[in-house]
Every structure is written in C-alpha cells, then in structure tokens.
Amino acid sequence: MRPSNIAYPNLRAEMGRKNLGIVEMATELKYNRDTLARKLSKKSQIDLAEAFDIQEKFFPEYDLRYLFALERSE
C-alpha cells in the first residue's frame, strides 16, 4: 500500500517520520498485511482496540485522537 492510501494524515506523517510501513506494522501486530491496509485506508472499519494497539506499539508519544484524525494537525 502506498502511504498516500492511508486515510489518516497524521498517522501517515508519523509513519513516514519513523520510516515505518504497513508490512512492518502488520507483522508486529500479528495482523494480515492486507487487512491492516484496508483498515488504514478506511475500506474496512478499524476498531478502538486496534487503534490503541497501533498507538501503544508504534506511537506512544502521540494521542490517539491526533493519530486518527481525518484532517492533518500540526
């Protein structure tokens, strides 16, 4: 999945800053790569527990609301 397909601009930006891709995240979270890609592109629903998993494992320094906002924040 190209980073531009990720529907959450702050999450996409932070992934870029950490040079973190879908494959690495899916592997660490023990998710199927395609399933995670669909969730991050909003083609399927991401539940709260999954969002917390992503935030806690990869971006503990950021608030969940910031990461999953639909509009970019600074």
Task: Output the keywords.
74 residues, mainly alpha, 434 Repressor (Amino-terminal Domain), 54% helix
Shape: globular
| Name of the CATH class | Mainly Alpha
Q: Helices and strands: which structural class?
A: mainly alpha
Weakly predicted, low-confidence segments: none
Report on the architecture of this protein.
By secondary structure, the chain is mainly α. The chain is globular. Helices cover 54% and strands 0% of the residues. It has helices at residues 9-17, 22-29, 33-40, 48-58, 64-67.
Fold blueprint:
Blueprint: H1 9-17, H2 22-29, H3 33-40, H4 48-58, H5 64-67
Give a brief description:
This protein is mainly α and 74 residues long. Helices cover 54% and strands 0% of the residues. The protein has helices at residues 9-17, 22-29, 33-40, 48-58, 64-67.
